Every structure is written in structure tokens, then in C-alpha cells.
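LAB NOTEBOOK - FOLDING QUEUE
OPERATOR: T.R.
BATCH SIZE: 2
PURPOSE: Compare the predicted C-alpha cell outputs for two unrelated chains run back to back under identical settings.
PRIORITY: normal
REVIEWER: second-year student, initials M.K.

ITEM 1
FIELD SEQUENCE / FIELD STRUCTURE:
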Amino acid sequence: MTKILILGAHGATAQIVIDRLLAETDVTLALYLRNAARLNRYAGNSRVTLIDGDAQDVAALTAAMADVDIVYSNLGGVDLAQSTKAVLTAMSAADVTRLIFYSALGALHEVPGKFGQWNEQAIAAFLPGFRESDRLIKAQAGINATQIRPAWLTDAPEVDYELTSATEPFKGTEVSRQSVADFIVHLIQNPAQYAHTSVGLNKPNTDGDKPRWM
């Protein structure tokens, strides 16, 4: 049976992924987060293990990766690069090779025009971490990563998205968390897809100088 380790499991998108995996698949889940009691609603599920841990604790991460087939990182923050380095070190130690990594638009300097300029300013504190994480992932031999670069996230109850490759200009300004979760769930079910690549996700026909609610 496939086992998935979800890092930063309290994140909004991660929780959508968790619920869908439990409802639609037979995978088992290890949910790794600070203050694991926040996800106590899963404590009685025989397919779920809750792990209280720090994302930069290599020993704890390595232990959490025992028998894991896929690591899905939903980590963030201005110190993301340090967390990514710890995750990659732990994956090598635990001999886990498949990584799904939640990145951000702009991580590859791929967002064109006025929206790209606005995005650079809006998430200026976080982009260095995403960009350094991209460098670290690409430099880590033996890691098969799919990096996901979603547009600005909404809570719209919809699954409606298109993809752009790492070499294409980013499209659109927004995408729903439900859409990002849908891509992740399908990727977990078909892990041979989108190997060693970075994928942009956006809702079609949402181009503009900034997200519509800004």
C-alpha cells in the first residue's frame, strides 16, 4: 500500500488533499506538522499517523520517512530554503526519491508584464526561499521532484485550471486551492507523471495586472 508523507499538513491546500486521498484512494498518510493536535480529527483513522515535528529537524524528518513512497511538501515561510535543505537531506538518508513540492509563481522568474512586477513586490519576502529551494532540489541527485507553482490562491469551490511548463510564461493571476489539490491528488495517483519538472497552475482567462480582488 502506498504511503504518503505530508509536510506542513495543517495548510489549507494540504487539508483538501488529505480529505480527498482518504475518500478516493487507499493510500496511508503520515501527517507531519507543528502541534499535531490541530489535526486530531484524523486521530481515529487507521490510515493516518500524526507526527508532531519541526520541518528543519533532519532526524525527525528521516524517522517520519520510514516506508514512505512519496513526500508532499506543503511547507512555506521566509525560511523555506532551510526547511527544503533539511527535507532533501532526510530524503537521501531515508532513501526516498519522489517529491511533490508546493512552490510559488515567480520562483522561476517566469511571470511576465505588469502582473509579474506586482507579484515580485507582493511576495518579495518569500520569493528568495522559493528560488533557493528550486536550486537545491535541482542540485540534489536522485530526487525526482515535481514543483507546483500556483497563481494567487482562492477558496472558490471549483476545479478549473490549466498548466504551463517551466519554460513558458506564466498565465493568469488566480487559481483555487481545490484546483491545486486536484492536481496533487492526481499526481499522487500517477506519480510517473511530471517527473523532474516545475508546473504552473492557473485558472484560465484570469489574466490581468493583479488578482481581481486586489
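ITEM 2
FIELD SEQUENCE / FIELD STRUCTURE:
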Amino acid sequence: MGSLSNIDQSNNETRGKVITCKAAVVWAPKEPLVIEEVNVDPPQKMEVRIKILYTSICHTDLGAWKGENESQRAFPRILGHEAAGIVESVGEGVLDIKEGDHVIPIFNGECGDCGYCKSEKTNLCAKFRVNPMKSVMVVDGKTRFSTRDGQPIYHFLNTSTFSEFTVLDSACVVKIDPKASLKKMSLLSCGISTGVGAAWNTANVQSGSTVAIFGLGALGLAVASGARARGASRIIGIDINKDKFIKGQTMGMTHFINPKDLKRPVHEEIRELTDGGVDYSFECAGNLDVLREAFLSTHDGWGMTIILGIHPTPRMMPLHPMEFFDGRRITGTVFGDFKGKTQLPQFAEECMGGVVNLDEFITHELPFSKINEAFQLLIEGKSLRCVLEL
């Protein structure tokens, strides 16, 4: 791992120049990632080049690696979007970030100037919101990565963190407290922020509320942590993997339901357990049948279902419009409704203070060279977050 002093010393040598470094390149869907030398161009106007020190793997990376839909089939590509690092250099016009800053890349950017960013009703951005179709930089429509012989390598989710150096739009770079552990802070780029934010910002879980979480990967367990921090009275976890209950208990889950053990629909079990249904349900599985169960598990009159899972199939929602006349609501959330640049630093401070225990989510640590092993751990359901050190 490079130290801050080493990076400071190298800035004069690399600023404004092409950097050659190691990156994990995906050449085609489902093929093993290849660690190889790539060229990383200097940042252009309103861009930032970062030295990545830690990165981890999310199910969204896994879906892109599989090529699950047309929008994710730009290859060769450098995946990765959960990371932390140190700024190596900045492009023209970047004023809020400087060389040496400790930063987190975010896939859902915030320019601060558009109508979306100025609105309190959304955390989307007109130009830098999450966009799986985007594979090049905004300023010139080109990539900043290339092979040693000049072949372009495409970007991913505004970030591309499976590389020792990466270039991002400054709108997708969040400055954090230099005293924070970069290893832990890397988790805030996606899953943990999305899950906790869904509980805090989207649902606004109140003390004494009842919650049901469908799908207990890192995303669902982050929801549990957020609900626990808000004082939820019952946090019900639903998963077909019984081992999830053990981990879930450490993060605040009070009840566990394995659908395989039931002879009736899950929502009927939850309604009986909670006297009519939970106040909030969270769908973290990316499964439409599960989404229907999550919706029906909420209490009529006021229940709310929040969709967090990614749904790659063309199937439509299995709900009839008249079902909303019972007072139940349903909504989705992007990045837990956090505005990345303005609100994430405060969330990072809360995590430093122990409001959310990030250590609970790091189940494995490996060197970057073993990234394919880390992917396999996620595929097999053995890891929540495997942090890779570059």
C-alpha cells in the first residue's frame, strides 16, 4: 500500500503525465479478471485522478461481470465502485478537492449546480447520476484507460476502482476526514450507505417501528444496522440461507424467517407476527416474487416498501393498481437518498463514532492480485465484503 508521503513525493513526477499501473481488466462477460499493466491518462477539466488503496466487490460488479443486460456490455472494462484512496492530481477547475486529500469515489455524483442538486427532494444529478450506460468521461466522450498498445478500456459506474489509479469526474469524489480508516471508509461508496440511507432517509424509520428485510446480503444487513440505530423494535430478516441469521443478530435482527421452512406465504407469517404487518419492508434481493411478498408484508393504511435490489429482467412489477388503495406505498432508493458530496462526510463521521459498525461487514481481506478469489467468495455467498488492498 502506498503511504500519503510516498504519494506526495511522486506527485511532481506524475502530475500531468500518463501513469502506468496495474488494473483488473474484464475482457468479456464471465471471463476471469486479468491483472495487467494499463495506462491511466491525466485528469482533464473538472476531473480527479486518485490512487486507490482499498476496494471491495459489490453484487452490482458481479452483475456487470456476468453481462446481465445490454447496458453493462462495454468491454474491455475496469469494474469496481466501492473504494477509498488519496488524490494524486486534479484537473482544471477543480476547487473543492486537492492533491493529498483522502477521498471516497461515488457512483451517484453531485455537481451542486443543477436543478436536481439544488432540490431537497432528490439526490440525483442531471449530469452525474448513476448511469450503467456510461462508459466514457463527460468532458470529451473518451476513456482515461488504455492498454499498453493503446486500445481503449471502458469505465464503469463513474468510478472504475479495480485499478491502482483511476480518473473520475470531480462530482463523483467525496473528501473525508484524513483520520478515518480508509479500509473501513471504502465500504461507504455503495452498499452500506445505500442500506443505512434507505432506513434513515428513504423510510425515515422511527423508534419503535417494525421492519422486515428481504435478502440478507451486505445491503440487507446494512438496512438492519440502520434500523437498529434508529431504535426499531422488531427487525425481521428473511432469507433462504439459515446462516444469515447468525450474522444478522449481531447487526440488530430480532427475528429470522426462512421461506423454505414455511407452509404459507411469508407475508402471512409476518402479518401474524406483527399484528397486521410491519411499518417498513425492504426488498434487497432483486426478485419480483420477493418484492410482492415484501409489499404485502406491510401494514395496510401506512406500510411502506423500499426497493433496493437490482432487477435485471424485463419482467414488470407484480402489483395491481387497486392494491395501493389500502394505503400501502412503494418506492425505490438510489444510494440511500444520500447526497454524496454534501451529506456523505457527515455519515462517515457517524460511522467513525460507532453509530454503524463497519467492521461487522468486512468478512474477508485479500491482496488485489487475488480479486478473482474475492469474486468467487461473493458468488458462493461466503462474504459480505471482501476488502482488497492495492
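REVIEWER COMMENT (ITEM 2): Confidence is low (pLDDT under 50) at residues 1-5.
FOLLOW-UP: none requested
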